[in-house]
Each structure stands twice: as structure tokens, then as C-alpha cells.
TrEMBL record:
Keywords: Hydrolase. It comes from Sphingomonas psychrolutea. This is Thioesterase. It comes from the Bacteria. Belongs to the 4-hydroxybenzoyl-CoA thioesterase family.
Amino acid sequence: MSDLAAPKFASHIFQVAIDAADIDFMGHVNNASYLKWVQDAVVSHWQRFAPADAVASHAWVALRHEITYRKPTFLDDEVIATVLLEKVQGARAFYETIIKRGEEVLAEVKSSWCCLDATTLRPARLAQGVIDKFFAKD
């Protein structure tokens, strides 16, 4: 990788579970359910790549979600969320999550999160060694 190339972060596939309670009066998944899926997918991504001690000593809170809905999702759909950490800046992490049914993109989500010290609940920067765990291995 050249010095000018953007870092390549490891993506994470998260199987989305659709529950009957996710379905709204129009017969498809309610918009609020997508937020829960993104939260579950991002936390799963963190738990997959971060060392156990970092998982135990940090917590994450969402700061912002920007969702672009492409197609409706239904109860019997098989849905996955692909999570990609775009960058870490200070105590903030910026994610992209793509929610798909097969090859169809159902929603695209840009979100930012704040890392907290699990004890003090104050913003905490991650050690570079922890951040490096999220880089894709070529």
C-alpha cells in the first residue's frame, strides 16, 4: 500500500434477525428497527475485532445516524448487514453499514459513535494497537 492510499478496514457481516414486532402497519419493517440492527451490527463488529480487554473496558454510544432507505424489508426476508469502519478520530468512530437482501441494497447507513471508558463513562481514545485490529489483512 502506498503512503497515499486510504487505510483498508476489515468488514464484518452480521445476520439480521427480523421479528414480527419489527413490522409496521404497512406490512414492512418499521424505520426504527433499522437503527437497532445498525447498533447490533456495529457492536458485533467491535466485539469480533477488538481484544477482549478492550471490549471489557470500553462502551460505545451512537452520536449520529444517517439512513438512506432503498427498498422495503419484510418479515420473511433473509437480511445481512455489512459493517465497515471508515475511520477513527480521537474518541469517535465513523461507520458505514449496508443492509441487503441477497444482492439488493435495502438501506445504507452512515453513523458516528463515541467510545467511552466503561467505568467513568467519559469519552476515551482507543490505543493504536486496538485500532490496528480493524485493518483488513491482505
